[in-house]
Fold each of these.
Amino acid sequence: MLATRALRLIGKRAISTSVCVRGGHGVAKVEDYTLPAYFDKREEPLPDICYVQTLSPEQKSLKEKEMGSWASLSNDEKIALYRISFKESFAEMNHPTSEWKSVVAGMFFLIGFTGFVVLWQRKYVYGAVPHTFDPEYKAKELQRMLDMRINPVEGFSANWDYENKQWKK
Amino acid sequence: MSLQKPLMRGMLGKRLRFHLPIAFSLSLLAAIAFKYAVTEPRKQAYADFYKQYDATKEFNAMREAGIFESVRPSEE
């Protein structure tokens, strides 16, 4: 614990290089996924670590130059410094993909497939429909609804001509 | 390269000042349209129906059709 605190003063990745001694059993291996990672996220504009961890010699000299006055940096050098710290710019990271086309295509395909499933179900799974769906039974239902004057003002029976025993034109 | 300072504040207020009057007026319009397209014709339809309504005649017609259980059709 004290060793990690002391080493923290040395470098950015101090935590990774610190030694964690576990009760005489040896060094615990530090997994990659436990360390801070780089993510391009619109909601978190400053990731935990820089994108480029191991700098090439030119990048190292650029970083030295960055310690001085920034006015002396050319535009290309500024862009190079940006690319050391970040992988994609906001414009690149937010650029729309065509993924939605695949999603919609998949949706339609699966809905179509569901249609086949439903047809098969109607043929092989469901039993016969009740006798109340027979045409004669339905005709009797209709006559009874008209006799009862269902919705005579604006609805059902309003469309029936009781004098001439037919639907109103 | 000096950019213009971006909009820092007042965005919600600006959006509300633009959208709220539109929202209120469209809602009011919808309510007025519904009143004059649906409720007024419906009230008129009911008024017209009951102007010429003879309850006894309708009752006897229904009775003859045989839908009541308390009064059966007047069998001769």
Amino acid sequence: MIRSVMVINTQGKPRLAKFYEFQPAEKQQELIRSVYGVLSSRAENVSNFVDAESIFGPDTRLVYKHFATLYFVFVFDSSENELAMLDLIQVFVETLDKCFKNVCELDVVLNYSKMHTVLDEIIFGGQVLETSSTEVMKAVEEISRLEAASNAISLVPKSVSSWRSR
Amino acid sequence: MEQLKTIGRELAMGSQGGFGQSKEFLDLVKSIGEARSKAEEERIVLLEIETLKRRLSEPDIPKRKMKEYIIRLVYVEMLGHDGSFAYIHAVKMTHDDNLLLKRTGYLAVSLFLSDDHDLIILIVNTIQKDLRSDNYLVVCAALNAVCKLINDETVPAVLPQVVDLLGHPKEAVRKKAIMALHRFYQKSPSSVSHLVSNFRKRLCDNDPGVMGATLCSLFDLITIDANSFKDLVVSFVSILKQVAERRLPKAYDYHQLPAPFIQIRLLKILALLGSGDKQSSEQMYTVVGDIFRKCDSSSNIGNAVLYECICCVSSIYPNPRLLEQAAQVISRFLKSDSHNLKYMGIDALGRLIKISPEIAEQHQLAVIDCLEDPDDTLKRKTFELLYKMTKSSNVEVIVDRMIDYMISINDNHYKTYIASRCVELAEQFAPSNQWFILTMNKVFEHAGDLVNVKVAHNLMKLIAEGFGEDDDNADSQLRSSAVESYLRIIGEPKLPSVFLQVICWVLGEYGTADGKYSASYITGKLCDVAEAYSNDESVKAYAVTAIMKIYAFEISARRKVDILPECQSLVEELSASHSTDLQQRAYELQAVISLDAPAVESIIPPDASCEDIEIDKNLSFLNGYVQEALEKGAQPYIPENERSGVLDISNFGNQDHHEALTHSLRFEAYELPKPVMPSRVPPAAVASSTELVPVPEPSYARETRQPASLPSASDAGSSELKLRLDGVQKKWGRPTYSSSASPSTNSSSSTSHKTTNGVTQVDSVGTSNSKARDTYDSRRPQVEISPEKQKLASSLFGGPSKTEKRPSSANHKASKASTHTSEKSQAPKAAAAHTEVNREPAPDLLDLGDSTSSSSAPAIDPFKQLEGLLDQTDVASNVNHGTAGAAKTPDFMGLYADTPVSGLGSSVGDLLPTNRDEFNLTSELSNATRTAQGGVTQFNKGPNPKDALEKDSLVRQMGVTPTSPNPNLFRDLLG
């Protein structure tokens, strides 16, 4: 099971944090800080895997990938495969790239809720849901379309909309 | 006019994805991005919270605004600030009809709330309604929230709806429903235990995605109980076969590989099902072999599948052909340049050596490379591997390495871990007691506070009880060597408390035993300890007791006792101590000293630490007194557990489970979400709500499940910290530890074969050397295998026979020392006698992979090194062996034909360009493969300069990434 997904920038600011098992806010901060501490001290050209047991407890591994100014971090347990998780990060970033066209840190910040939408289409309740960025894109676009549509509906006066929903 | 502008802005933002934010949010992000210090950021965020609080309390907030506030709050909370004042607004938002708002609400609550938060009760009703919605997106949003927010108490409320969704026409919904069920199962196994058949049924779903989702749940179920799913082996094998044969729609391909995540999951399941089951395993051989053959090893995901194959092969009933294929893949991993693959290779090797221990030998150099790699992750993984292959012949080298590493790191968690590993290995395989004590000293010195106290007790026990054989002489030797080493260490500053306790105890017990040290010398040292660590009471207690013992032994030996002045003052200080324990010890000491010899002898007999102490647990000597008291009319004693109204204390400790259960039962009673139960209760809901009552089962099952999922190796390790001192010839041998015992027997037979046949052994190593070098060429072409590494390799992997052991460890030490000496003049002679090898300083540079200075020396050295291992008296084989070496040298020389052997500087200059060329080539190659993998997706991803420029300027304006020179684009991604 995937325990957590984090996106942290190279200065240690969290850009996205999702924990599939509830962690109180202070604990989240602590985890993010320790993860950043480990990642920032790692050299270039080393493996993308980090021993995470000292941070997240027994049976946890951490895979990260460094893109431009961001670290993408997945934490998971022994029921997942490290290399596969590395590719899942790739899927996530590829999807973001398709979503925002040449994604950069700013997109990630400004489209906070969309990031979550994308992530929710890839990982569901800690399990891998979809690995094809094309499929994820389809789903996300569908959501955007319907959301826009429902927005339009809600512009219609209340009485009409309640009539429609009947 | 103003409004039009904002609409225009929002339209523009909308085109970017429909998630428009206001200027305020942009300003917030911008100011946080520009914050110079943590305090400044704090201030900005607090201000934002204030603003949000004010805004949220205003009446009639437009919905669109509300949505933005909530998103801003999520953002603020991610930065680590409390946003609980607005949770209720997020909850309210989930009730909204508007999809956008509803989804935002669900997102916020699933990020904000824990599954036992009070507000959940308000959401459950909405979730129930939404799960029945016509709009599949609403259903999905609700399912998403369900995974995070539902706990074992609220599961019954939504379970029927989720089960209904398993038949939903949309596969995306079915997929999520099955995953939500899986989540329920993880959180509360009992509430869905009657639904296991649903998982089996969904395995046959038309949609491969749904089938794939089912595999996750089945994997969990099978991890707990493999036996009840043996009937599915055939189905899993046939599914895997179909997937591997590309019967799935093209859409499931990932990097030209058919549904790799499904393959991985299936291989994991097969590994569980085939473990220790020959019949099931045989059904898997063909398909696993096929995957080995078909899998593309050039892509990351292909290697992931291959790795999973190896795991599967090493878990199921062994098959020689598959093992061979696995070994091939492992060697490819280990020879790769990628640290990731090396890591996987080392991991896989660790799995496979349990079955075929001989496989490690061909990879010795790769393993040593990994051990010396700067990458910590890789290093740790390699230590893991070494731990698995430790035997009595290589324990010294491995534990030495581990201790060196342990000293070098700061990470306490890992330090504790590796220290316990060292102790475990030392206890199991120690070649001599002397070595054992020295090793333990090092461990205690550097990680004393981190190791288990038991270890210290074991060490004391070992020193006290000695070998277990009836060899008193050796015992006393051991003790005096321990005393000596402790007297040496005792002066060092800041020793860990546990270690000091051991030292004090040993000095007290045996400090004067061999007559080498006088009582006053030892007591002086002990007083120093007590003084230096004056705030550590247990150390002081140990020290004062040790002093008492020393004096007592002196008295019983009828020697005159003079009490040192510092000792006197220590005793005086302690007798006024706040600690009653210390006080008592001090008074005891004073009392003992004033007694005469026979009395002292009976109180503290010399060398009696191993005698059993008889304890009369029934306190039978008090019977007469009790009887007397009863006759006088005293109340008889009622055992605690028979007293009414008193908690059963004796059972209390044993029944943690029980306690936990009653606890959770009480929770049930209070928090059962009665109001949200549907009024028209369908029969299924009734059934599941009755499921709630037998709570003992769920939590018990969970508790047993957790240990099972832990890595068993470490588990066994920690529980087996105890020394086995009883009987047999090998004190530390642990006969039950099969995984490490079997390698040692196996390889001992294989090496005996080697020593008889020296030449073949040389040849095989020679070829592996050249092979290894070939693969490193691309990264660092000038790499040669240094003699030091060879030595290490031989001491790690080499023969375990007794005659070889000592020289190899000596070699190791010599080489270790030589790395510290700077490089002296190198005079490589092909015919150098092998005695020279040891003396010749192994140059530092070689170790760093720069061997240009002596291209021929290292080429020869390995063989000389091996000579040392082989039967040295056999001249004939030496000659053979020399020719073999000579035959190889031209090969090496050819490679460096244009490299002047002596001209160091120029040779480096010569090599560098070629190095760079090759590097470029490889990078180009990898680029090419990547573009090939990327395929069609590459097209629409190409960097668009105009976009990038626009973004760049925006970024600069926003100041989000002020330090980055090129903030745009993920170059890495685009290859």
